[in-house]
Amino acid sequence: MSNNHLIIGLGGTGGKVIRQLKKTIERSKDAHGNSPSDARFEFLYVDTSRDELDKKEEWKVLGKEIDLARSQYLINEVSSVRPVLSDPNSFPGLKGWIEPRSVFDLFMATTAGAAQRRKLGRLVFAQNASNFVKAVEDRLAVLESGPGGKVGAVIHVVCGLAGGTGSGSVVDAVAQIRHKCPDANQYRILIYAMLPEKNSRRVKDVAGFSPYYANGYAALSELNALAVGKYKPTHLLDGSRLDHDIYFNGCYLVNNINEHSIQFEVESEVPRIMAEFIFQKTMNKEWEGLGRAEKGENDIKNFESEDGIGKARAKLFLSFGIKRVVVPEQEIKEFLAYGFAEQATRQLMYNNFRQGEGYADEAIEKDWGFEARKPDTLQSLLLSDAHLTLETGILEDDARNASWKPPREYWKQIVSLQVPDIKADKTIEETNWIHVLNSRLAKVFDDTYRTMGGVRKFYEVKGNARLEMARHIGRHIEKELFGRWKSGTASLIQLRQLTDALVAMLDERLELLTEKLTKMPTEMQAVQTRIAELSAQFNKVGFLGKHLTDKRGALFSDIGTQLQDQYILNTSYQGLKFACSLLPFVKEQLTALRGAIDALHQNLAAATEKVKLERAARLGPADAAYQKRIFDQNAIAGILKALITDEAAQAARTQRVRQTLIDLAGTDVDGFDQLLQGISLGSVISTLSQESAQIVEMAHAEIAKTLPPVLHVNIVERLQKKYDANPSGLKAFVSELYDEAGSLLTFNKTEVDRSVANNAGGSRGRTQTIGVFLPECENQKDFRGSLAALFDAQKDPASDTKVAVGKLSNQIVIMKIASLMPARFVESLGELKRHYDGLLADDKEAILLHGEGDGKKLPPLFARSSAEVNAEARRKPYLLVARLLGMVKERQNKTTGLMEWVFSYISGGLPKVVVLKGKGWTDIIEGDHPADVQAAIEKEVAKRIDADYKHIDKKTELRSAYEQLVLARFTDSGEDDQDAEFLALAAMQKPLLEIVGLPAQDD
After folding, report:
1. Residues 922 and 985 in one domain
2. 562-567: which pairs have CB atoms within 8 A and are 24 or more residues apart?
3. Range of the domain at 522
4. At 324, phi and psi to the nearest 5?
5. Residue 666 gets which letter from DSSP?
6. 805-848 pLDDT, tens digit each
7. Which Pfam families does this chain map to (predicted)?
């Protein structure tokens, strides 16, 4: 058997099963990414909607994306069929079955999906059939050409039968695959078809007639007809008829209620079970009975026959059941990983470790207002007065400019140079010293300060760069705070609180600086008054003061000091004005920074809630019906506590998580805004989950040296601990497992037990095959041997049961296969037929139910009773006799002028005419007429013969008329005694003579 497996999902159900199978495959891998299965999988998903693909979060396992590649799906849009409907002759694969096109009129271009109409689903698929065939070829080529690949594959076609997309395309999909891969042994095709669920929420009025249920019956009818050779579908690429002996090897039927009446959720549980079954059976290849069941090798006849039909019902339908006893390793791992992930996000957000508890979800209390006002803090964050007033440069070029000095230092240096220089200059009269000094200082203030045209000009020019300076301060603070968070020394909530304190401090600073600014003119006036007083004294100095005491020189020095203070104040005044205008810009930057920190905090808070929900969803008390979990909740809790309460280890682990999150946005990230631009909530959750899973795996290996392990535990060991001293309990446990591994299908016991005609040599009822997969266990070889023997002893004596070695050490798997079933065994088939028959009465609905025609020529899914067989055998002869009697005849419709066939008879003494459905005699004789019309024909024919054809001569006239009709057909066919119409007429001889009342003709 090939290890190549191509999973083809048709419609929403197919997409769900593919997703669950990819999850199952991913979850089965070990820590190194190795799979326990030798199976090589490829996927192809075909749908009319992207709904399943767009559920991005559902295509993940512990944050790892497992979504389909672009080459693994086809989305066929309904709107693309409009050109086909307008010009069907240009599409040879469609024109033979697309009529009547009028049935598609109610479906507009905006119709979503296939609108639960099989015919529309087929039309959409057919128009894209060439793409489908190419995609299948491509996926098979990938399987067969890859490392270890061999020619051949098992092709699994998964779909639902209730909707329009999967149900409407499954027959053509199978037919096209088989045409491309004609060797049914080398390329086995298995169908997994989900039947419409009972009381579906998609059906508003279950009591009426719904396509949702009718589609199921119609699809089964076509699949059955395909299997018995009674339906040869059109080759969608060229319009020819396909003809293969074996289209599919088997068709698994699945329902949401199993044979023990246990109900499963349709959207999630059933696809998960189907995926689990496909994975398990492809992994456990030692199960020979499975191959026999899927090939129908347990019976000499894989069909039921009926008179007049031949092969009528294929016995290629199967059902399956699966039961797992499992140490839920992946679930435990996810529980631990999500538990650690919550701790990691708490550290990133709060960094509040509590001994014996781990990281808390609340902040550490601290006086951030005091922290924000510390001189060291202000200096390091470029928020000191010196920075805000540009005593010190803010922008990098300004900060590196060595000529920039604080006003006090600057003006002190200028005055200390000018005063002695003026005194020493003999060309300057002493009485002009003050004027010269003031003039020189004014020139510096007005023209040369910091080489930018004076103080006012300097601040005017720098005022144009306030936004750049504010951004630089904001970026500097962001890098500083990001560095603290990156190193793990500060949490997001701490940084947010510090930022809030800085913003509040800026508001306070602006108020204080504004107040100081308003007081400065008074200070400046006081200095000017002092200068005036000293100048007056300077000018009054006499000869003695000038030549004997140098009083004027001393006064000049004092005046220089006062002028120095004046220019310091003037410069500081401009600096304060600048600072007051700069602060709002800085505040805006810090507010934006606060927003970035908060946004990251919110992302992590949302991620925390997500992982909390995910953890809560793991290891719940209730087991799914298809599995029984065995695990030690206390041991798991012990491992988790040991994991989260090791402070030193947790610091290192959470640091690893933090760095991985930062790396999402790039290795050069140094700020919160930059980080936010490179991540999303989805990527945070994914990365957090994946990293946590790896950390848990490594941490468990260390912790398990001192505590009981909860990962990599053998199920046999678990059962040995539980049942070694309780053999009767173990026996009951094994028996219960066999009982619970029920088929995912409810059976109609009456139909299962029914003995049908023409089935000589064939099997009766279901054939059951069971596989039990029990892993090896080196530590408990004896118990494992006893357990295997117990499974063998407790098996159903009527089943083909194999106890084999399982490949997954953490689980025991029981799979049951019911095979060699005709579709009539399905309990819900009768209800599906009720809806089908109800819609079949509407001509348009009948056409929409089937890919071709109205389905009336397909073999019946239920075995007909003797009375039904006899009635069917007499239907055509009665119509023929009615024609010979002139009761069924062709006439011209007086209104339309077109020819029509009618049935006319006398009712209540008055003539009555019924227009029959059909354009020609072939339509009349082959068509199914309403039951009341057929009954009336048979009744009136019998009355007419009894009234007017009692005499033998009259009867002989009818026989002669029949013979002439048969001979005329023989002549028209070119005397071809194998002509289908001639044979059909000839076959009616015996029942026709019985109706007329004549003995059978001798040869």
Report:
1. yes
2. 562/527, 562/530, 562/531, 562/534, 563/415, 563/437, 563/438, 563/441, 563/531, 564/411, 564/412, 564/414, 564/415, 565/527, 566/524, 566/527, 566/528, 566/531, 567/407, 567/411, 567/414, 567/441, 567/444, 567/445
3. 368-602
4. -115, 135
5. -
6. 999 999 999 999 999 999 999 999 999 999 999 998 888 888 89
7. Tubulin_2
